[in-house]
Structures are given as structure tokens and as C-alpha cells.
């Protein structure tokens, strides 16, 4: 009992340390990013101001003329005031000597009144000129703000078009995330990262021979929050509720932030994709149940260690069982004797229990590159089944969230003995995954899914029936440039893979069947229509004719965007 308490205490301490380090690193990265954003914003405002140079020049000329008129008026006013003073002095002299006649006094008073009227007119003109100038400046500022807004809207529309084309093609989406510097990197506070995000879709890796650019569906800078990252993948989580096979996996070298992206740490802002996905499923599930859908949710969590499957949700103290990837009579893939737990997404204690139990059982070890390096691939799977008696439909969806073991060079990681064997098994498994994507990208007739347990398990999501997204995680350190370049080359290859348009696992249920799990083949049949579920968008069936149209729209928007940029800089 004492040993178990000590182990739990050490685990809790490690978890808190991890969260503190992650928070600290994110704060430093966000500070740097804020400073860079401020510089970029000033530069952008300067560039946008260029389009108004001609108009400003005209306004400056007009203002110069007004200033000259104002100077003349001021000189005239000064002269008039001097003259008025002289007249007053003369008046006082006349009054003193009592030699000026009444008619002369009246004439002088009329002249003074006229001068005062002229002064009032000049004051009114000066006030009008100031108001006009302020109005012109306000209008100019409004035009600049409008141009900035149009640029942002154009960029957003281009991105939506790109994502729609990728969805219709069935391309594997690829998101790249650069982690911030960590205390263990031993770099100065003003160190420059070797991998630089450039906008939302591009990044540059700096090498001795020069820089190399890569483009992906989304690129996240070091200061990005866990919440913002999850917002970008939330639609994939929703797809599982719609009846799709969905797979998100996190790839990268050891210490690049894969586990932080997938699992995160703690129960606050540092939570990763897995706990946030469960939370989102709970929200969507509640909304869909109001529409007549009844959901059944179960979770499994396994790791593939040295090509052996381990159940991460096995009861504490229970021996490890033997597990294999098998195909059932219905053609669906499953893992034998794997513990599946029912899950209520609204119950935070159940979620915490699943995550903590899996973390305790996962295989980790200390290497030169990471003090708690994951030595296995982990696959969290959310199994969803649902029925709708009103529409006589049933669906089955799966959400696979994979945290892959880190790729590494054995010479750099400093592992020996059993750890070296682990590294070799990891690299071999990742090589099998790479070969699968290469074969898919080349449209080979044979895809080597059976070459590893991981690819065989994920075959339903990688073979064209599902949706797949890859996170490539990158370290900013100079020592990691070679590994980062390898990861980016694979990610680029993966991004070219076209799996085909994903298919929903929806079936029509007859009135005699009340449960989705009924084995009667006569009680249900496959249907291709979309059920009235979470997504209000309808899948476009005429893919061949839609893609060219979307490409044309995207090209037009891109042209408008470039034209706007040119006009703003002229």
C-alpha cells in the first residue's frame, strides 16, 4: 500500500511539473508572438497606408493652401488689430483733446464694426477648414480599416474553399505545430527558432544551406493555446457522431510535443485533444438526443509496444492479456479481449479516471531527448452507436486519436540495450506507416496495411472510408533540424494522399428491429442519404463537377485578394 501511495504521489508530482513547464513555455512563446504581431501589425498598417498617398498628397496641398490663407488672415488680423489699437489710441487722444467731431467718431466706429465683421468671417472659415480636415482624416482611417477587413475576409474565404476541395478529394489533412522552447532546451531567452511559422498555412525551416518552405492545411505557432488547436479539429470529432470513421494522429520526433497535443496535462487550459473531444461529444450528443437520436458511447485505450498490443484500461494490478487485431463477421475490425468502458461525457470523474488509468499503464522512459519519452503508440478510440426510431436509421462511428511514439536517431537519444530495441521497433513501425502513405499517394494496387499492428488497426480510416488528419509536431531547436526536416517531408507526402470521399456508416432499420446491435440481416440495409444529425450541411454528390467550380471560385478570390494587396500598396 505504501509503495502504491508513493507511486501515485510521484505520478501526480510529475503531472503537475509537466503542466507548469507547458504553461511557462506557452507564456514565453505568447510574449514573443505578441511582440512579433505588434511589429507585423505596424508594418501592415504602413503598407495599407500606401494606397492613400495620392489622396493624402492632395489633402496636404489643400491643407497647405488653407494654412497659407490662414497665415494671410492672421497677418491681416494682426494688422487690423494694430490699426484698431492705433485708432483706439487716436480716439483716446481725440477724446482727451475733445477736437474730434461727432461725424468722425461715427465713421471710425463703423469702420471698426466692419473690421470686426471681417474677423468673425475669417474665424468661421478657419473653423470650417479644421472640421473638413478632421472629416477627411476620419474617412481615411475608415478606408484603411475597411481594406484590412476585406483582406481578412478574403483570406478566410480562400481557406474555406481550400478545405472544401480537400474534403471532396478526400485528402489527408495535415496540421503542423511548432512547440515553444522549454527549459530543457538550454537556450537563451532571445534564441530564434529553427522552424518559423509564416502565416496560417506555411512554415520555413532554417538550414545551413538556406531555408526550405513547406505548406500545409494549417500551421500553428509556438504560442497557440490548446483550446485554439482543438477548435481547428472539432469538425472531425463531430464527424464521428455523424457515422464516419475518423482518425487523428500526432506524429513527430521525440520531445516535439505529440503527447501534449493529444493528451495535454491537468484538467484546465492545458488539456489536450482527447479530453476536449470527449467534452465536445457530450455537448453534441445532448443536442442530437433532442432530435430523437439515442447514443451509446464506449471507449478503449491501447498501446502498441514492440509490436505487442497492451490494454491501457485494464484494471490496476491485473496481468496483461494477449490481444490481436481481428476482423469480425460483419467486416469490422476489432481488438480481441480489449476492455471497453461505457463513458458519460458529462461525468468529469469518469473522464479523469480513463486518462489517469491510461497514463499509469503507458510505457515511458527517459532518453537524452525527453525525460518522459513515450515508448509506444497509443490509440484512444471512442466507439459510438446511435439509433433514431422516428427516421428508422442507425449509425456507427469511431474516433481514433493516436499518439505515436517519437521518431528518433538512436545515436542522439542515447538509448542502449532494451531501450535501443524499443527505438528500433518504433522506427520500424513508423516506417511501415510511411510506406502505407507512400503507396496510397502513388495509388498502388496493394497497400501494405498488414506490415504493422498500427496500420492494420487503422486500415478502415486510411483506406478511403474515413477521414484522417495528421498532426506533425516540431521542435524549435537547432539540434532537431534534421529530424524536423524528415518529419516535414513525410507530412508533405501524406498531404498528397487522396483517400476518396469519406462514407458514413448509416443503416436503415426496419420496424421489427429495435436495437442497432441486431444481427438480423433483413432488419437493416445500407443507405446513402444523410441522416438529420449534427451537421446541417449536405455532402455534395457530384464531386467531379463541383471540384472545378470550387477551384474557379478559389482562383477568383485569390485574384481579388492579390488585386486588393496591389491597390493597397500603390
From TrEMBL:
Residues 508-570 are annotated as: Disordered. Residues 531-546 have a biased composition (Polar residues). GO terms for molecular function: ATP binding; microtubule binding; microtubule motor activity. Pfam families: Kinesin. ATP binds at residues 252-259. Residues 171-497 form the Kinesin motor domain. Keywords: ATP-binding, Coiled coil, Microtubule, Motor protein, Nucleotide-binding. The keyword Coiled coil applies. InterPro entries: Kinesin-like_fam (IPR027640), Kinesin_motor_CS (IPR019821), Kinesin_motor_dom (IPR001752), Kinesin_motor_dom_sf (IPR036961), P-loop_NTPase (IPR027417). SMART domains: KISc. GO terms for biological process: microtubule-based movement. It comes from the Eukaryota. Residues 144-171 form a coiled coil. Residues 510-521 have a biased composition (Low complexity). Residues 551-570 have a biased composition (Basic residues). Belongs to the TRAFAC class myosin-kinesin ATPase superfamily. Kinesin family. KIN-14 subfamily. This is Kinesin-like protein. It comes from Proboscia inermis. The lineage of its organism: Eukaryota, Sar, Stramenopiles, Ochrophyta, Bacillariophyta.
